[in-house]
Write a structure and sequence with these properties.
mainly alpha, Growth Hormone, Chain: A, 2 domains, 13 helices, globular
Length: 373
């Protein structure tokens, strides 16, 4: 057998090692521009999902009050939040392997949960309604990962995340019309009809999932590691979600105690939903990885101030201000925390699952704290 010796090549004058224009070559994959088509699909998918979630958040407490009694009234809403927290784990793994099938499966949970919940209301089966609420929570756990998917489209800044996250503002304008249509078409079965509309929205989201990129850009083998500020982003995000859930649970009861009717309360809550998502469309151009910690802390300060204002408010105007402050604070902290997660490193699936689980667990704790406030 002959032996071939390979020697290191020596440089020669006039040898061109690369004929590429260095100005045209990105420093990394993360510097590449975000393509419009995947970003459009993420944005539309998130908007449809938030629309369904807003309908569900409106109907589930009502269904619990109609079908339950005593302490069981709050059980469907608790099941919804529990399902959302549990859903973060499979969402992180499945959307990391294949976004199309992962998000499609999550939306399918929403279709099944809404259908089962509607059946439970019509048939008067409280257990079916609670189980349907849990499945709807699973769909919410998957839906929260659209913002992580947007972070992997090529930029380590807040703009793509903010556009997807901020698309939820469309829900604030679409939900009242959907509720009115359900009431006009279904009459006494308006609650079940609303869940059917939510099921159709989740079905549309499942169809959109097959136009998404198959894999998130930041899930790259060998390109993961410690995420700077991970604990800070998770803790501040969890505090913000807990404060938001506490505020949403407290405000309606406090307003009723001040003689403010349900029709006025629903209008105030609608402004709260607008404040949760609309600011992200602007903050995406303001928040950078360096400014993200300040955004998190500013958001927490607004959330704390909102809770304090709600306890002393006596008029609808002050309650509206408190809920708007709460929404803006939640938006700033969530956007800042998500930007921090993806700013300098590629989070692992376990890190993303734990982060979102802590957010939703804090929301569950905030809802439970309403009974003690």
């Amino acid at each position: 057998m002959s032996t071939i010796e390979l020697q290191r090549a020596q440089g020669r004058g006039g040898l061109l090692s690369c004929a590429c224009d260095p100005l045209m070559m990105p420093d990394s994959v993360d510097a590449a521009p975000v393509t419009r088509w995947p970003l459009t699909i993420f944005t539309l998918s998130n908007a449809v999902t938030i629309f369904a979630q807003a309908l569900v958040l409106t109907i589930v407490p009502v269904g619990g009050a109609v079908l339950g009694s005593g302490v069981t009234v709050a059980l469907p809403f608790a099941a919804l939040l529990l399902g959302a927290a549990v859903g973060t784990v499979p969402a992180a793994w499945l959307t990391g392997v294949d976004q199309r099938w992962g998000f499609a499966l999550g939306a399918t949970f929403g279709v099944a949960g809404a259908a089962l919940g509607a059946f439970g209301i019509v048939a008067g089966l409280f257990g079916a309604f609670v189980l349907g609420s849990f499945w709807l929570g699973l769909a919410q756990g998957f839906g929260n990962f659209y913002r992580h998917g947007a972070a992997g489209l090529g930029r380590r800044d807040a703009r793509a995340i903010a556009l997807v996250f901020g698309s939820g503002v469309a829900a604030a304008f679409a939900v009242p019309g959907a509720l009115t249509a359900a009431s006009a078409l279904a009459g006494p079965f308006a609650t079940a009809a609303t869940l059917v509309i939510a099921a159709l929205a989740h079905f549309f989201a499942s169809a959109l999932a097959f136009f998404l990129p198959r894999q998130r850009g930041f899930v790259v083998p060998g390109d993961t590691g410690p995420v700077p500020h991970y604990a800070f982003a998770t803790i501040t995000g969890a505090l913000s979600w807990g404060a938001m859930a506490l505020m949403m649970g407290l405000a309606p009861s406090l307003m009723l105690g001040c003689g403010i009717g349900l029709s006025q309360t629903s209008g105030t809550v609608a402004w709260h939903i607008v404040a949760m998502y609309a600011p992200a469309l602007l903050l995406g151009f303001v928040i950078t990885p360096k400014r993200a910690p300040l955004a998190c802390l500013t958001g927490l300060a607004l959330s704390a101030g909102a809770i304090g204002l709600a306890f002393v408010a006596q008029t609808q105007a002050l309650f509206t201000c408190a809920l708007i402050m709460s929404g803006i604070g939640w938006s700033a902290t969530t956007l800042g925390a998500t930007t921090l997660l993806h700013a300098q490193a590629n989070p692992t699936r376990a890190q993303l699952a734990l982060h979102d689980f802590m957010l939703l667990a804090a929301a569950l704790a905030g809802s439970a704290a309403v009974a003690l406030a």
